[in-house]
């Protein structure tokens, strides 16, 4: 017997948005039809004119546990995710302690998830100098790919790699068909920022576009040389759009994301001392960011991810407003969908674009495109119901991140999440969590799901 039927006038199927009924059984989408079957005896949800979309997938999240749970943690971040319609997260390897650069550290991270996951979570392994021998051990553990920095990560335990390090690692990663995600900034020793440490323009000048452009050019070259899936995270420099387009035209396995904050805010809007806006690479000028929108429209940029990277108020230098010493990271996970939709609707995009940028394309990066990211028969029934025409004002009381510091406070955003489903089970509805601890760990190997542990079968 089918467990659930969701019927609505705006169901985002692979054929576009249409009136449809989605039938769910044992956590999977088993049918999509025009009308409810006769004599249907399961539960029926009529969402009317709300949108039914695949759950949001964010492959760029800093959860920080174990070791820095005072910054964030599995409990708070996955609660915030579910409320925001996010059904799958992929955790970055650097902000926990220990960092996820060894198989042993990965085991510690998995142990820390126990009893805390309210949405599904997968993991990237870390690539740092000297851990080449750990790459295949981490792959055996089930990481979805690897993350590297080309400049200081902000965490001393996660140093940046050099071109020589990449040349050792990329052939191994390529052999397994996994992606290498890269923070692309190649810094120089030249002191580029002088003057007032509270000045945003001073901070912006300290991380110029050239840092990104040089790094991206190197990664394009190495991508072609090693035929290794290469993913550029949080693109902010519009100067690199054309080289990326040429690389894609050549058929290189290159993908690119940008962040919501580069599309929603512009440097001209940021006042001195507002360190809640600090991120790296920095939010650039409107002219630059308009070009990012056009690259997203054309598909040169594949999708959008939050790079949720929270920190306590003292690390964000909220009392002093010192941009040069503040932690570089923007907290926004819960608002991923409404932030992007609010900005996109003003530019003429529609909800089908949201599904592509927030669900389908991120699933491809994480190796989950055969079962997540679309409303298709046989796929996991990870779903979000939301109202694109309703708005709300972001308040600290509504933010479920561990810390309420976010540049979106006070912003009116469109797109209210009404319900979230994990495997066909309703876990959030109308502002309330209706089921806790329904999330699972996502492993790369055979794409098996497990709540706390994975046994390898050969």
Automatic annotation (TrEMBL):
Belongs to the metallo-dependent hydrolases superfamily. Allantoinase family. Catalyzes the reversible cyclization of carbamoyl aspartate to dihydroorotate. Transmembrane segments: none annotated. SUPFAM superfamilies: Composite domain of metallo-dependent hydrolases (SSF51338), Metallo-dependent hydrolases (SSF51556). Homotetramer. Keywords: Hydrolase, Metal-binding, Zinc. Pfam families: Amidohydro_1. InterPro entries: Allantoinase, Amidohydro-rel, DHOase/Allantoinase_Hydrolase, Dihydroorotase_CS, Metal-dep_hydrolase_composite, Metal_Hydrolase. One of its GO terms (cellular component) is cytoplasm. Pathway: Nitrogen metabolism; (S)-allantoin degradation; allantoate from (S)-allantoin: step 1/1. One of its GO terms (molecular function) is cobalt ion binding. It comes from Spirosoma endophyticum. Its cofactor is Zn(2+). One of its GO terms (biological process) is allantoin catabolic process. This is allantoinase. Its EC number is 3.5.2.5. Residues 51-398 form the Amidohydrolase-related domain. It is an enzyme of class 3 (hydrolase).
């Amino acid at each position: 017997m089918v467990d659930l039927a969701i019927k609505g006038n705006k169901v985002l199927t692979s054929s576009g948005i249409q009136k449809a009924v989605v039938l769910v059984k044992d956590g999977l989408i088993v049918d999509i039809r025009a009308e409810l079957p006769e004599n249907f005896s399961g539960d029926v949800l009529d969402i009317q004119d709300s949108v039914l979309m695949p759950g949001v997938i964010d492959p760029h999240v800093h959860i920080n546990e174990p070791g820095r749970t005072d910054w964030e943690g599995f409990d708070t971040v996955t609660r915030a995710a579910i409320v925001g319609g996010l059904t799958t997260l992929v955790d970055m390897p650097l902000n926990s302690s220990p960092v996820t650069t060894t198989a042993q550290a990965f085991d510690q991270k998995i142990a820390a998830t126990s009893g805390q996951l309210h949405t599904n979570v997968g993991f990237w392994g870390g690539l740092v100098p000297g851990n080449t021998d750990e790459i295949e051990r981490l792959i055996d553990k089930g990481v979805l790919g690897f993350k590297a920095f080309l400049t200081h990560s902000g965490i001393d335990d996660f140093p940046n790699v050099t071109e020589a390090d990449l040349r050792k690692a990329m052939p191994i990663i390529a052999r397994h068909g996994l992606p290498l995600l890269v923070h692309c900034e190649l810094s120089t020793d030249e002191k580029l920022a002088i003057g007032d440490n509270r000045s945003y323009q001073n901070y912006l000048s300290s991380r110029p576009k050239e840092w990104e452009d040089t790094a991206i050019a190197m990664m394009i070259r190495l991508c072609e040389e090693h035929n290794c899936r290469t993913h550029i995270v949080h693109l902010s420099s519009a100067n690199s759009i054309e080289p990326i387009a040429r690389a894609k035209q050549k058929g290189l396995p290159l993908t690119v994301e940008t962040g919501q904050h580069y599309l929603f805010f512009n440097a001209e809007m940021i006042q001195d001392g507002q360190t809640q806006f600090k991120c790296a690479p920095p939010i650039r000028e409107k002219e630059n960011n308009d070009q990012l929108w056009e690259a997203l429209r054309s598909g040169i940029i594949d999708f959008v991810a939050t790079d949720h990277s929270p920190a306590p108020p003292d690390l964000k230098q909220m009392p002093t407003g010192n941009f040069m010493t503040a932690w570089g990271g923007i907290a926004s996970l819960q608002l991923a969908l409404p932030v992007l939709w609010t900005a996109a609707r003003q530019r003429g995009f529609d909800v089908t674009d949201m599904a592509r940028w927030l669900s389908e394309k991120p699933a491809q990066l994480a190796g989950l495109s055969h079962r997540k990211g679309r409303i298709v028969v046989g796929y996991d029934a990870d779903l979000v119901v939301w109202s694109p025409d309703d708005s709300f004002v972001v308040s600290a009381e509504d933010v479920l991140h561990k810390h309420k510091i976010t540049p979106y406070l006070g912003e009116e955003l469109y797109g209210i999440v009404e319900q979230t489903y994990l495997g066909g089970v309703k876990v959030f509805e109308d502002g309330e969590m209706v089921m806790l601890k329904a999330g699972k760990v996502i492993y790369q190997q055979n794409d098996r799901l497990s709540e706390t542990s994975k046994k390898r079968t050969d």
